[in-house]
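Tutorial handout. Part one gives the primary structure; part two gives the three-dimensional structure as tokens.
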Amino acid sequence: MDEDGQIHTLSLLERLRTECRELWGSSSALYQRVDDLLRELASPNFQDIPMRLPFRVELWNRNQQHIRWVIAATSSIAVGRAAFDVAISTHIREHLTLRNGAQLIRQHMPKDGGEHAPC
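Part two.
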């Protein structure tokens, strides 16, 4: 009887080990997929913005270290300037830039004391 009980216990432990291994593989793969999506979401270099749209209106994070959001992308400087003006009126307390690639065309930096104007 003791030998049958030990074999049954070992069998249960082996099944538990197999189940845990499968669970770990599933959760690890799920973690990797979620992590990849979060990294893509956090990245300001969105892959779906075509390179032929070089003029971009960008909203920066609070410490002005990273782009939080590309508000507009266009191939026209006139449309870019118009989008920039609307972005300023919509996001008055935020740091905004209008760029052509790496070239800074205009920027809006909120001033201290509550007054906010384009630079």
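Part three, for discussion. Residues 113-119 have pLDDT under 50 and may be disordered. The chain has two domains: 1-42, 55-118.
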